[in-house]
Amino acid sequence: MKLTILGGGGFRVPLVYGALLTDRAEGRVTEVVLHDLDAGRLSAVGRVLAEQAAAVPDAPTVTTTTDLDDALRGADFIFSAIRVGGLEGRADDERVALAEGVLGQETVGAGGIAYGLRTVPVAVDIARRVARLAPDAWVINFTNPAGLVTEAMSRHLGDRVIGICDSPVGLGRRIARVLGANPNEAWIDYVGLNHLGWVRGLTIAGRDELPRLLADPDLLGSFEEGKLFGVDWLQSLGAIPNEYLHYYYFNREAVRAYQHAEKTRGAFLADQQARFYDEVGAPGAKALDVWDRTRAEREATYMSENRETAGAGERDADDLSGGYEKVALALMRAIARDERTTLILNVRNQGTLSVLDHDAVIEVPCLVDANGAHPVSVAPLPDHATGLVCSVKAVEREVLAAAESASRATAVKAFALHPLVDSVNVARKLVEGYTSVHPGLAYLK
Fold first, then answer.
1. Is 103 in contact with 110 (CB distance < 8 Å)?
2. Exposure letters 6-21 (e unless 16+ CB within 10 A, then b)
3. How far apart are CA 352 and CA 354, in angstroms?
4. Which of 116, 120, 100 is nearest to 108 (CA)?
5. Mean pLDDT within 185-199
6. Per the count of CB atoms within 10 A, which of 36, 281, 359, 445 is most buried?
7. Alpha carbons 78 and 413: distance in angstroms, whole number
């Protein structure tokens, strides 16, 4: 079975390949093709993968290419993990937004809109090529903003594109662990959009244990989200929000923390990964050791400004192991082998949430089998969540419309309608700022 990874020179690719090396079942991936526009990054990641596979018999073969069409032909599965504009683009997204006093995070607020505007046209081109060159392939989208990009690609690939994110999975596992339960035996009632969702229940052996957690301040304050949001706020919500909702619920504090940080997250990662690629390319370098060390630093500093704002302290050791590659491979195995499972995924709504239309991509539990991912019916959202979900989905639709029409005015509308952008004039300045620094937004007229 052939797996193509777009963005194959990306830093997290060894996580995926490492997971593939543990899969010895029939019908496993035997061929991995890495595609990237940067041949140097492809070479560096290839060295890491070669060291990973050194002691593994029958490891999947790895080839690299900068030719997209060659990478797509004959693929059974395609992981899309591109970053249009690179980490330098992410740093620019943050800088331009913070200069206007608004959030520049890569998936939330102004930064997410800017990233979406330059990513959607590229993702749509990929989707069209997949439909032509590999019509039977399944596309698993890692690319952020994951919900928005998945929806853009679904207009050309239908339900054969599925978006993934490890945030809901990690949240569910943390809640289960603090309740003393096996995360693999828990049903997680999670609903929303990518990076905008809530756990409303966690059922173990037929009983919803979330009320017990919410009623116990010591238990509730003992894990990441309890520390991040505070016990009182979680009890008021009656749910556990995805960590990215900290940017909404504590926006002023988050913006201030990012403005005063020595470096934004994008700038930190750009510098860190530049060092990584340089070190891996040095004569005699042990590529896998360099990658392991860099990854540990990356995970430990994740959302550090938010945790500092909330006084949440360092991340727990159990939260440093990542997980998106496990979700992706579980999804791929379920489809390829008809190993039925339940995963929280980004898929078309299909009537699951009545406040959104059929084609709106949402993030909910799905039953997965050989025919793809099927969203599970969920109860309506509470009013506070409904308002936020509908507002952000409306912004996503304006981003898609701006990308399709190349309309600068529509791009301004997308920024202005976002709950975290407080003025139409600020929206105009954001578009001016982003188009001046991003060649990928030159299409907006």
1. yes
2. bbbbbbbbbbbbbbbb
3. 6
4. 116
5. 96
6. 36
7. 33
